[in-house]
Amino acid sequence: MKSILTGRDALKTVVDNIAEVAGYLWQNGWAERNGGNITVNITELIDEEIRHLPAIAARKPIGVTLTALRGGYFFCKGTGKRMRDLARQPMQNGAVIRITDDCAHYEIIADNTIMPTSELPSHLMVHNRLIEQGSPYRATLHTHPTELIAMTHHRPFLEKDVLTQLLWSMIPETKAFCPLGLGIVPYTLAGSVQLANATLSQLEEYDVVMWEKHGVFAKGLDIMDAFDQVDVLSKSAKIYINGCAMGFRPEGMSVEQMSEMTRAFNLPK
Ligand SMILES: [Zn+2]
After folding, report:
1. CA angle at residue 242 from 25 to 248, to 5 degrees?
2. Which of 25, 52, 128, 214 gives a 20 to 30 Å CA spacing to 33?
3. DSSP letter at 75?
């Protein structure tokens, strides 16, 4: 069967980027087994021919009604699929889905009947909110960055913006390239509606949200942007942990040095 990507360079580039990031997640040790999810809104790249493609599997309920997603198309990692496999064969480990007109169901249209991630409802809830806000963001990412998760096992780091200030102070790039900082969601059962709602709430203020003792959830303009923000935060976490491993608590940039950056680079915080 011909792939939906054949002859569609822009769509193929988006899927290639997803595969590239999936490889980075695996190489970084952030994606053990089937850990992590990627969902990207590809609606802008959908042509008339794709709109008329029949579903290749029975429609499924999303579990919520998301009215901003009517007629939307998404690439989603498959449930139980591994990031390391998605990196090599994205269309065998992920699928393109269409949101049906009732905004409460989805159907798989290409290339294979790969059922989407079990976290699809929470990812789609975030995309629904982004569209309502007129946001240019198209990608959501969930992954398990070891050092950042380790830091959430220390209760004082879970207070609002304590981790943000600490991570920003480790290296200037982190403040520059993750300029909204890191939100915190207290420990909540994976896959629950409570976790999805708490994530939505934190994403009003931050691009990257830490799920206590679990992982990060990030949104970005595209999947590279979402990955880069998590990557710079992870770099800072590694610097902090390296300092601690050498027997000292890293000094960090001063409050004045960070304010100087905010002014010099016109940062939001
Ligand atoms: Zn997870």
Report:
1. 155
2. 128
3. E
Answer yes or no: is pLDDT of 155 > 90: yes
Residue 205 structural domain? 9-265
What count of other Cβ atoms lies within 10 Å of the Cβ of residue 259? Answer: 12
**CA of 148 relative to ligand 1 center, distance in Å:** 13
Q: How confident is the model at residue 237 (pLDDT cuts 50, 70, 90)?
A: very high
d(CA 155, ligand 1 centre) in Å:
20
Would residue 2 count as lying in a domain?
no
Using DSSP, state whether 243 is helix, strand or coil.
helix
Residue 119 catalytic?
yes
Do residues 168 and 174 make contact, with C-beta atoms less than 8 angstroms apart? yes
| Each residue's pLDDT tens digit, 9-59 | 999 999 999 999 999 999 999 999 999 999 999 999 999 999 999 999 999
Distance from residue 215's CA to the centre of ligand 1 (Å): 6
**Domain total for the chain?**
1
Measured in angstroms, how far is the CA atom of residue 210 from the centroid of ligand 1?
11
108 is a domain residue: yes
Select which of 49, 119, 132, 159 is catalytic: 119
Report the CATH number that the domain containing residue 131 is assigned in CATH: 3.40.225.10
Residues 6 or more apart whose CB falls under 8 angstroms from that of 174 comprise 167, 168, 232, 233, 235, 236
Residue 155 placed within a domain: yes
Q: What is the pTM of this model?
A: 0.97
Secondary structure letter of residue 155 according to DSSP? G
